[in-house]
Amino acid sequence: MEAFLLDIEAELSICEQAQVVWTEQGFPIVELAYHLALWLQRPAAGHEDFELDSMQAEEGLIRIVHSEDGWRVGSTLTPDFWTLPVTWEDLVTAIKHFDRSVREGVAAMGIAPTFIPEL
């Protein structure tokens, strides 16, 4: 399983109002999907921040934090940039969309994405 989490990479971008503000080539997207799914399954989901603790990428490369106005996405690579705040429901919808895209990509490679926890 660990090989799938680390070996399947793609371009990952953070967009704000249809404008790409950060992009990373060769990002371990399956590992991100895996950790986001675990985060959403935690009892504290919706109450605690997320920071990708990757075996391959820099710690904090992807961060999701709660602010007074809602949830924001950022990265240690762009410490002064945060997306506009969104509601918890909108954040979960975006994560589920990302999860579906990753699963479809993995399945298209002929690999069953069963190692990614279900949302």
Automatic annotation (TrEMBL):
Ranges for domain DUF7878: 5-104
Q: What is this protein called?
A: DUF7878 domain-containing protein
Q: What species was this sequence derived from?
A: Glycomyces rhizosphaerae
Write the lineage as a comma-separated list: Bacteria, Bacillati, Actinomycetota, Actinomycetes, Glycomycetales
